[in-house]
Structure formats: C-alpha cells, structure tokens
Design a protein that fits this description.
By secondary structure, this protein is α+β, with helices and mostly antiparallel strands. A hairpin with a 4-residue loop joins strand 8 and strand 9.
Length: 214
C-alpha cells in the first residue's frame, strides 16, 4: 500500500489517498475539501478511488464527503454512529468556518470496534477511540504498522476535547488502552501535522507520555 497525503482547506487537514498497488484501487480518508485536487491526485497516480473512510465527523474532515461520494458514486464508511449529531450539524459548521456549499451525508456503513474495512487487496482494522468526538475511529494497517488516527493523537499533543461531547478522560483512555498496545514501532498519521510513532509519543508527549502520572 502506498500513502499520499493531501493537506486540504485552510485547516491543512491530512486527507489521505491510500493506494493498493496490487489492484490499483484506493480509499480516501477524511476528505475535508478540495474535491478536484483529490480526484486529480488519484488520476495522476493511476489509481481508482473506490470508497471514502471517515475517522470522525468534524467539518474539516468531512466537508467534501457528500460531493466526492456523489461524483464518483462510491460508498462512505465510518465513523462510529455516535458522531451522527456532528453530521447533522455539518452545514451549520461549514458556514461557521467558511466552508462553501458543505452538505450532510449518510454513511453507507457505520463502524464499530473490531470491524475491518477493505479496498483492493488491503484490509484495515478499526478501533473505536472516543474522546475528541464520541464516534471517532482509527484505521490500522497491520502489514505496514501504520495507523490513521485522525484527531486523537498528534506529534507532541492530543486532540482537543472542548467541543460538544468531547471527553478528555475518554481520549486519554483511548490512546493508552487502544493505541499504545498496537506497538511502539507503529507509525501514525494524524489529522493535522507531521507523522510520528507511538513509541516516540510515549517517550516525549507532554499529555500522554509514560512519564505522565495518571
């Protein structure tokens, strides 16, 4: 699998094109905006987008979901159903943050802890990691030891929990009980900013590092 990061919108959200090199099929995670750019990137890399995967339903991660799904006639998978209320608010949130013509959408499949998602010959494991939003999920590709973590964890930081139904204790619990056990060697791509590894964050992260008392 090949990963192409496409930072979109003024939030520089890491929309990601996940490409199965064997089949030429791809999935797009968190298309927050700039549909033309996403499609052009896929075409330039000779890959066909066959589904949309969503970590959570904040507008900077989902602003282009409806348009992209309609344009390519592809299904939407994720997030967990507890983010339905954010999907219901998406047009309002889009207007609040200057996203033009943002539409609500209906996932073709809600995701749960322990699910898997597939595209081409790639299978990703699903981990429900609430805290930043109640329905946040993480995608893990075992073969490459790679996690797409949305806004749960960042290099040197963690997701904010001051938005509706955010829960700091739940977020910390998600990181320590669902992400750390995957292994220190796991590289993760956050929703914004650079990649890191779980091991590096356990050593240095001022919010969830091992040196922080519970």
């Amino acid at each position: 699998m090949n990963m192409i990061i496409i930072p979109v919108t003024s939030f520089q959200q890491n929309c990601t094109l996940l490409c199965c090199e064997q089949s030429g099929k791809a999935a797009v995670t968190d298309p927050g905006g700039e549909v033309d750019r996403i499609v052009q990137t896929a075409n330039a890399n000779n890959t066909e987008i066959e589904k949309i995967l969503i970590t959570h339903a904040h507008v900077d991660h989902t602003g282009a979901v409806a348009e992209l799904a309609r344009r390519l006639t592809i299904p939407i998978e994720g997030p967990h159903k507890d983010d339905q209320f954010w999907i219901d608010l998406i047009a309002q949130e889009g207007a609040n943050f200057g996203f033009s013509e943002v539409e609500s959408f209906k996932p073709d499949r809600w995701l749960e802890q322990g699910d898997t998602v597939e595209f081409g010959e790639v299978e990703l494991e699903v981990y429900h990691c609430p805290g930043h939003t109640p329905g946040h999920v993480v995608f893990f590709y075992l073969e490459l030891r790679l996690a797409i973590v949305g806004d749960v964890l960042f290099q040197g930081s963690i997701g904010r929990t001051d938005l509706p139904r955010g829960d700091r204790a739940a977020l910390i619990d998600s990181i320590k009980k669902r992400l750390w056990p995957l292994g220190d060697d796991v590289q993760f791509l956050p929703g914004h900013g650079p990649t890191s590894t779980f091991g590096q964050e356990r050593k240095t992260n001022p919010f969830v590092g091992d040196h922080i008392s519970s």
